Request: fold
Amino acid sequence: MYCFAKLSIGSSLIEQAIQYFDRYERTDGEWLFAERGHPLWYGIELPERPFDQPNTKWPAEATGRGSLPEDLPSWRAFYGIPDAPTGFYGQPDADSTYK
Reply:
């Protein structure tokens, strides 16, 4: 299995390509995860952090910061944020030229 990961480590954003080698064992009639190897294809520090961008109005604008993860109920519950964020920037303005 392959993984394309982006990791926020300190002030850096790291992109990695990883391959997983999983091993499973059958125990009492069930297949269970037993072991994982995960060698790295590459890792590179990216010049920009995506969450530092200004908000977008997806789908009218293709670049910028979207509404996730803040609009996910599970994210808000985990961080104790009671309500959905105001100014949901995942929707275009009413006067948008996007059709």
About this structure: Helices lie at 73-79. The CA atoms of residues 15 and 52 lie 16 Å apart.
